[in-house]
Design a protein that fits this description.
Layout: E1 3-8, H1 18-32, E2 35-39, H2 49-54, H3 59-77, E3 81-85, E4 89-91, E5 104-115, E6 118-133, H4 138-152, H5 164-174, E7 178-179, E8 182-184, H6 187-195, H7 199-206, E9 214-216, H8 226-230, H9 240-248
Parallel strand pairs: 1-2, 1-3, 5-7, 8-9
Antiparallel strand pairs: 3-6, 4-9, 5-6
Helix pairs in contact: 3-4, 6-7, 6-9
């Protein structure tokens, strides 16, 4: 079976820690025997003119649609499967990241954040990893729905509008196949990963169906103001490189204190 893994980001990369993320995905693709393709901002050329103009100031929205067009084009080229991984998606246990034998699949999001004085988790799906096989019915439906929503919307759109928000809404209705090992780390969870343990990480693992083998590190959250830091809010940056190093080292989430239900 021929499979293509696609990634995209503008060049030069805005942060050095994205390089090991990209390298980890490329190495995983080679390990699996997949073809690999990196696309720079040329990916936005795939967008219809109307959508390209409407999302010119919202690159996350533009990327969420453009990746679907790139995946569809790969299948039209003759690939039997096409996979998307975000540029800030880090594969730290490549031997455990396996694609399911499903016509399509999404990534798993267990988002942990503070709600007042307590932590809460929200179980969703994400598009930092997407799998579509030739002949699947979901890709065209999702692409058409996303484009319709963007065209019809008036005013600014939240970044997750046609990504995790739309996918989670669809998943809640139809129960989409999910790659449970393809996770996403909120700033609170990333902080605890760096520390080696903590309440956010425990809550994350308790609500995860499988120990993660890879995770999106949320580069879109990788800026924070000095005033935010002064208020004591935990946030992934500026220690993201340390989180990457931790996940790629012996501290990756297979240690006993990181398993579901551990205390």
């Amino acid at each position: 079976m021929t499979t293509l893994v696609i990634q995209s980001h503008r060049r030069p990369l805005p942060a050095g820690w994205l390089t090991p993320c990209l390298e980890s995905v490329h190495a995983w693709a080679e390990r699996q025997g997949f073809d690999y393709r990196f696309i720079d901002d040329a990916i936005f050329d795939l967008l219809p003119d109307e959508l390209r103009g409407k999302t010119s100031n919202q690159p996350v929205i533009a990327s969420d649609v453009a990746r679907l067009l790139a995946l569809r084009a790969a299948l039209a080229e003759g690939y039997e499967a096409a996979v998307w991984c975000d540029a800030d998606f880090l594969v730290f246990e490549p031997e455990r990241l396996m694609l399911p034998d499903e016509p399509y699949a999404l990534g798993r999001e267990v988002w942990v954040q503070a709600d007042g004085r307590r932590l809460r988790s929200y179980v969703k799906v994400h598009n930092a990893l997407l799998l579509f096989r030739r002949g699947n019915a979901f890709l065209d439906f999702y692409l058409d729905t996303a484009q319709r929503l963007v065209r019809a919307h008036r005013g600014p759109m939240v970044p997750q509008f046609v990504g995790p928000k739309l996918l989670t809404a669809l998943h809640n209705v139809v129960g989409c196949p999910v790659v449970e090992q393809a996770a996403m780390l909120s700033p609170e969870v990333a902080h605890d990963v760096l520390e080696g343990s903590g309440p956010a990480l425990r809550l994350f693992m308790q609500n995860s169906r499988a120990s993660p083998a890879a995770a999106n590190l949320c580069a879109s959250l990788a800026t924070e103001s000095e005033s935010t830091r002064a208020r004591g809010r935990r946030s992934l940056p500026p220690r993201t490189p340390a989180v990457v190093d931790r996940l790629l080292s012996a501290g990756r989430p297979r240690k006993p204190d990181l398993k579901p239900g551990s205390r």
